[in-house]
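Ticket #4471: structure export looks truncated?
Reporter: QA, pipeline team
Priority: medium

Steps to reproduce: submit the single chain below to the structure queue and open the exported record.
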Amino acid sequence: QVQLVESGGGLVQAGGSLRLSCAASGRMFSNRDMGWFRQAPGKEREFVAAITWRGGSTYYANSVKGRFTISRDNAKNTVFLQMNSLEPGDTAVYYCAATSERYSGGSYGRMGTYGYWGQGTQVTVSS
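Actual output as written to the record:
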């Protein structure tokens, strides 16, 4: 089992930055690929970014590429999402997610790839 707790959300003006954190507890964080998703009011949850358990590969939605950076610190059981040049369209609840241990890879944009989810943290970007 893995428990995930997001933090770092808040209210920021357009053009600003936020850094989200996702603290994991439980089994073998370092062996799990991690992802960030977001859900805006009235919309489906969508993929934002993912990072492999070795940390060597990262993946991004086109809408955030070049503005957001995902990283992880396996020693601290934490994955981060650095968000720069925020836009009102980035307003959403952001969720952290984890795969099974030693996941074989692929399909990072699919919610079904991840077996564990946090409760989410609200990000609001004002214009």
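Status: closed, not a bug. The export was complete when the record was re-opened. Leaving a note from the reviewer for reference: The radius of gyration is 13 Å.
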